[in-house]
Amino acid sequence: MESSVEVERGTAPIKEQFLTSKEKFHAFLDSGRPGQKSEDAEQDSGEPEQKRIRLDSEGAPEEPEKKEEKKKRMRGQNKSRPRMKPQSYEGRRLCPSIIQERDTKCFFGDKCRFLHDVSEYMRSKAEDLGEQCYLFNTFGKCQYGVTCRFAKAHTSAEMKNLVNADLYKPCGERETVRNHLDKDLQRRLRKKQVSFSGAEAFLKTISRGKKLEEDQRDQETQESAVPPVKTVGAITDADIIKLRPCEKKQVDFRDKLYLAPLTTCGNLPFRRVCKRFGADVTCGEMAMCTNLLQGQASEWALLKRHASEDLFGVQLEGCFPDTMTRCAELLNQNIDVDFVDINSGCPIDLVYKKGGGCGLMTRTTKFEQIVRGMNSVLDVPLTVKIRTGVQQNCNVAHKLIPEMKKWGVSLITLHGRSREQRYTKSADWDYIDTCSQLAAPVPLFGNGDILSYEDAMKARETGVSGIMVARGALIKPWLFTEIKESRHWDISSSERLDILRDFSNFGLEHWGSDTQGVEKTRSFLLEWLSFLCRYIPVGLLERVPQKINERPPFYMGRDYMESLMASQHVGDWIQISEMLLGPVPKNFSFLPKHKANAYK
Predict the structure, then answer these.
(1) Of the candidates 147, 168, 146, 166, which has an alpha carbon nearest to the alpha carbon of residue 157?
(2) DSSP state of 125
């Protein structure tokens, strides 16, 4: 029997008994929450008009010019959104020397800008968020001491930090996160005292204007005669002989599930969640090579690797052979990764207008120099992520792929959309299939519109070597389990809340359990919730599976939490965060980074 409810084009089909109106939906959510009503919250949240779902399709049709103008406004990101730094939520902060209970006095003495009086700090400190500290229970010691928002669990009456010796010793010997920025390296980078001998040797071949193949042979001859670096002790073959491509570390990418490098949301705690659900390959967020070469700590933080990430890579963005080659040599010597990926698919203007991201696809000479240069200094495989092209109806990937095989890439990932399309059109898997045949024997991964195991099965029917999952993992991170077990998982709201709780705990471990760390964890949790709210439970769908570009209408869940998780209102996301991380500060504000134009 067909439903009497008329479903608009682009709207996900939900069983009639669960459909509701906007007013009834928010009234139901208001009935289960204390305090502010959602209508009032909508005015105060700063949520842009284009993020609100409109039910009324009636009325006078819009003029074509206004329609086009509105469409332009919806693209990209909320660039003018309010940005609150996590440290701004705390008036006075305690000096690290006091937090860590060092024997020596503070290096800055009376000039230190932090508090040194614990009792004074405790008078201004916000209330604790709970009785149990995840860091203390997991590692036996919380490094944030009295500043921890769960300090009651591990501080004595004298405000001293307690240690559980049974837990602390084994965890202290085990490094859970790798690829930290060494302070000495940071200082040398800032003073430009780091040597890039391998990169300089390659760059000389470009400046002479000779053919790359001939120059590489000359370079190999020179390097085999002279040691590239000063050595200590006996000289081994590795000191004087350059690795051939076949001798580099090999990675078997075939038939793996690859979690895409996702800016903002693809952080380390999120990747840990996805690893638990079966992701095989993970990659750090896109890092700008120029910022890495300058020793910026915030950029180096994107390279951190958790112990659970057994097959991990980093993604670099850059537009010139000199900076990309130097950066590749820097990372090759200082961090532990299984592969390095070049981002030549980023569509945002900031990157594209400089010639990076998608811009590399139209600058083939520079692209070739970047790939060959990075390959010459790396001991791990080099991979590339591209789109179909720049213009919507002008695909160029099929022309680039045969060339990239000659340049020496180990893996190509193809997103089945052009830069102009962004996410408003379906991915072209027929074109991905064609390109996979051109890429052979180099493995090619397909990417685009994977939100269920059925989507993954259809993708695997093409000639791709594997699948990369991006937005699908943000909407439902248990997608990896669904694909591996070939089933639709009708996950409950309590199970989903447990996933969010795990993320919050991982965030406190990664960013800290003090006020600054709690609010940083909250901000990343809210960014993720702006994607999670698009998920529609399997049991509510008239047609399974849900398609990635189908907009969910207003519907009632099977319980209050399921309805709350379906809300696309920022105030409701904040309510969910308060269940896990306590109440927000008084001056708290949040606006999601992405405008979700795929829903229009």
Answers:
(1) 146
(2) S
Contacts by residues 486-491 (CB-CB < 8 Å, ≥ 24 positions apart): 486/453, 486/457, 487/453, 488/452, 488/453, 488/538, 488/544, 488/545, 489/538, 490/537, 490/538, 490/539, 491/537, 491/538
The total number of residues shown for the chain amounts to 600
For residue 89 the two structure tokens come to 């939520």
Element (H, E) at 185: helix 183-190
Measure the CA–CA gap between 489 and 453, rounded to whole angstroms: 10
Provide the greatest CA pair distance for the chain. 83
Residue tagged active-site, from 289, 346, 358, 435: 346
Q: Is 141 exposed, middle or buried (0-12, 13-18, 19+ CB in 10 A)?
A: buried
Going residue by residue through the chain (600 aa), what tens digit of pLDDT does each one get? 344 445 566 889 999 999 999 999 999 999 887 655 444 444 444 444 444 433 343 344 445 555 454 444 444 566 666 666 766 777 788 999 999 888 888 888 888 989 989 999 998 899 999 999 999 999 999 999 999 999 999 999 999 999 998 888 766 567 799 999 999 999 999 999 999 999 999 999 887 655 545 555 555 555 444 444 444 555 555 555 555 555 667 788 888 999 999 998 999 999 999 999 999 999 999 999 999 999 999 999 999 999 999 999 999 999 999 999 999 999 999 999 999 999 999 988 889 999 999 999 999 999 999 999 999 999 999 999 999 999 888 899 999 999 999 999 999 999 999 998 877 788 999 999 999 999 999 999 999 999 999 999 999 999 999 999 999 999 999 999 999 999 999 999 999 999 999 999 999 999 999 999 999 999 999 999 999 999 999 999 999 999 998 889 999 999 999 999 999 999 999 999 999 999 998 878 888 876 554 443
Cα angle: 574, vertex 576, 580; to 5 degrees:
110
Angle between helices 212-225 and 197-207 (to 10 degrees): 140
DSSP for residue 77: B
- Which among 296, 295, 389, 404 is positioned nearest to 342, based on CA atoms? 404
Q: How far apart are CA 600 and CA 598, in angstroms?
A: 6
C-alpha to C-alpha distance for 538 and 533, rounded to whole angstroms:
14
Token pair for 233? 């002790």
Both tokens of residue 495?
A: 């199970």
Q: How far apart are CA 455 and CA 449, in angstroms?
A: 8
User: CB 171: neighbour CB atoms within 10 A?
Assistant: 14
Which helix H or strand E contains 123, and what residues bound it? helix 118-124
The residue type found at 384 is V
In the block, tokens 């795929």 appear at 598
Q: What is the dihedral of CA 268, 271, 275, 277, to 10 degrees?
A: 140
Instruction: Give yes or no for a cis peptide into 170 (omega within 30° of 0).
Output: no
Look-up: residue for tokens 């509701």? 20
Is 346 marked active-site? yes
Cα of 66 vs its chain's centroid, Å: 34
Q: Map residue 427 onto helix, strand or coil.
A: coil
